[in-house]
Structures are given as C-alpha cells and as structure tokens.
Amino acid sequence: MVQEKDIVVENTVIRVVISDDEKTLLAAKAAGRVIVGVIGENMEKALPMARYVAETTDAVTERYLEQVVRREKGMPWIIKETDRLRIREFMAKDAGQVPEEPEDQKDDRIFQDQEKLEAYIKEQYGFFGYGLWAVERKEDAKIIGKAGITQCDEEGRMELGYHIFAPYRRQGYGEEACRAVLEYVKEEYGCMVYAVAEASNEASVGLLKKLGLLYFCEQ
After folding, report:
1. Sign, CA torsion 49/55/57/60
2. Spatial distance between the Cα atoms of 83 and 138, rounded to a whole number of angstroms
3. What is the average pLDDT across 172-192?
C-alpha cells in the first residue's frame, strides 16, 4: 500500500508518503521526503526507518499529517486557538521572549535559555507529544505565558501547568489558556486532569475551582 498526500503548512505544500512497505519508505526517506509507516494487520511489523507509524490508514488524518510535517520541518504544533490566544509549541528562538520572574524555579529557566529550550522541544515534544506550550497573544504575536501538561502519572492522569507573565495577569488570559488546554486534552487523550497549587496562592486556587479541576494544595 502506498499513498501520497499534499499537506499545506504555513502556505507551503509538502508531500507525505504513507506506506506499509519498507522499501518504499526507505526510498522516500532517502529522497528527503516526509514518511509515515502503517503497520496494518501485522502488529509485529517493524518499520524502523519511519519516525511516525500508525496502526491503520484511518488513523492517518489530515491533522495527524500536519503534525508530522511540522515536527519533521521544525515548525511548532498549533495546539489550540481562542479568541485572543494561540496555544502552540515553543520554538528555540522564543527564549528571548520569556522573562525572568522572582518566583521562577529551575524548570522555568529552561524556557529562558535557547540551548536548553531546544533540547526540551526535541526531547519533551518529540517523545511525549505534550509539554508546556507557549501562550501567544494573537494581536501582536507576543508570548505572554506558558500553559500545558507537565506530566502524566501512573494512573494516566495529566497534570495541568500554567504561568502567565506578570504584565499580563488579571486580564483573563490564564483561564482562557487553561480552558483551551483542557479542551485539547479531552479531545486527544480523554483522561482526567489535575493541578497542584500552593495554598497561599489564592488566585491559582480560585482559577482551579472555576475550571472544575481536581486539585491539590501545597502548604
């Protein structure tokens, strides 16, 4: 089985080769094409040349192919869009837009260092498919915070994380971004989401209650 589909990403047409045949995929990869393997009925079939492998052709949707193309071409996935915001994967160059803030912890500094952010993009997004994403304001493409999934526990529950930068707080951006992330998780994973907040952070606790989340407070 061999299929070829043209995917338009950011006004560029990119052809993707979809196949369950090893020789076809190897030849396409050698030619610099984007490839997707299909296992089909043989669940033990190995297609090591293909970074992306689907069980059936039905799983190879337009959205899936756009994500594959974006990953292969170094373009960020667009997670969700709201009236004011675009939730997308970080790019290494975004490090220059992430400010240092007094409450920052070690993990926050990853997003302020281009080299560390590049590694995060490759390892976190590339392996898990989720992580903390950039909260970008549509009107001026300015990054105003982070929101996304920080981890998935042994019970399959995902932890919501978010951080709106100081100049943009108290404008409803946190709730808008978090609701977009929750909608995405429901569509893509269908699992329970929880969050952790410091008991003294009344704003975060209030937001989590408003979102209807299961949450835990740290003293």
Report:
1. negative
2. 8
3. 95
